[in-house]
Design goal:
Helix content is 44%, strand content 18%. With 374 residues, the protein is α/β, with parallel strands linked by helices.
Length: 374
């Protein structure tokens, strides 16, 4: 049995790699699956990331074969899709990107051949252009099952296609990967703060950015006084999509601090988990750095560049933090009112920890795994 996974692979962040690893955990429960094909936008890059993550893939998928195909090659993509037993969009956002048309084309091939399709763990938006909204609507209609990562995305999908059946809030598959790692590794706290910042792109998420680079530098120099090391951890290492190392290098240039360090050497998925898990404190900006830090560490502060009410960070917190632990641990970058640098330092130094990751086997993990397997 062959499963083909398409999406944003070929430009994958470490968050995308966590999603894929979580999907592998689910697919490993099906003995009949022998091959998994990954449709990649830049296959050389996916070959590299799969090689770097071979330890996690072996742990999650076992001996099933993983193959890569160029999803932009129409002839090759049609051949692979037509020979599949299941085609899925594997996580990530359905947002204003031209590559949506590639996903739609693959789903149309599958539908024509009578091959089941599934949207697995995706989010909806941000969507601004009407023609992208229409492509996402068509993609939803072409999917036999729609499993989204948060309730905000479910509401958006239901509104787009005017139906409620076959649309489920199943959670982000990355959570399965992160908690699978947590079950097999012990936290060993060390005296450093692990931070992920990304370059802000107003075109995608709206105008306004009220905590500028100078304030971030002020924060880094403050944190230098609180910890033995300040580690800036990139979540993306590829030019397309924004290599975090470029922004972090510009940000730290001229600070003249031996304690503040950008991790230029690429880290694989498990190495990144380990860095965030063992930190005394964390700060996140990219969405999946938040997910990893929240589950594996818990003493973290959030820089939210998405919509305060409907964005992916808001969606995650509504589902994972109903008691509001993060209400005063979040800075909304698109609002003029925000905590002072010293306030952020004080919050992190308090050592208060989000309780979710303290259980041996979180109920949410078991429920998510069982839902996806079903």
């Amino acid at each position: 049995m062959r499963v083909s996974i398409i999406g944003w692979y070929g430009t994958e962040t470490l968050g995308d790699r966590a999603i894929l690893d979580g999907i592998f955990c689910v697919l490993s429960k099906y003995p009949k699956i022998s091959e998994v094909y990954i449709g990649s936008l830049f296959d050389f890059y996916t070959e590299r990331t799969l090689s770097e993550d071979r330890e996690s893939i072996k742990n999650s998928l076992g001996d099933k074969k993983v193959r890569i195909f160029d999803v932009k090659d129409k002839k090759r993509a049609k051949q692979v899709i037509a020979g599949s037993d299941l085609v899925m969009v594997g996580g990530g956002p359905l947002m204003d990107l031209e590559e949506l048309f590639i996903l739609k084309r693959c789903f149309k091939i599958a539908r024509h051949k009578g091959i089941p399709t599934i949207i697995m763990g995706c989010g909806i938006g941000p969507l601004h252009a009407d023609f992208y909204k229409e492509v996402v609507r068509e993609l939803l209609l072409l999917s036999d099952e729609i499993c989204l990562r948060d309730n905000e995305s479910v509401k958006a999908a239901q509104k787009m296609i005017q139906k409620r059946d076959h649309i489920y809030c199943m959670g982000d598959p990355a959570v399965i990967s992160i908690e699978n790692y947590q079950l097999h590794h012990q936290r060993k706290e060390k005296d450093y703060v692990a931070i992920n910042f990304r370059e802000y792109t107003p075109g995608e998420y709206g105008e306004g950015f009220y905590f500028d680079d100078e304030r971030i530098k002020e924060l880094l120099l403050g944190l230098e006084k609180d910890y033995e090391q300040v580690l800036l951890v990139p979540m993306h290492n590829f030019a397309i999509g924004g290599d975090d190392r470029n922004f972090l290098s510009r940000l730290t240039y001229g600070l003249q601090s031996e304690k503040i360090k950008v991790l230029h050497d690429t880290k694989n998925l498990y190495e990144t988990y380990e860095i965030f898990m063992n930190a005394k404190a964390c700060i996140s900006m990219r969405y999946h750095s938040l997910v990893i830090q929240t589950i594996l560490n818990g003493n973290n502060f959030i820089f939210d560049y998405t919509d305060k009410n409907t964005g992916k960070i808001a969606g995650f917190l509504k589902d994972f933090d109903p008691d509001g632990f993060y209400n005063d641990r979040i800075l909304h970058l698109r609002e003029p009112n925000h905590p002072d640098v010293d306030d952020i330092r004080t919050i992190l130094k308090s050592g208060a920890v989000f309780s979710y990751q303290q259980t041996d086997l979180p109920e949410g993990y078991v429920k998510m795994m069982n839902q996806y397997i079903k």
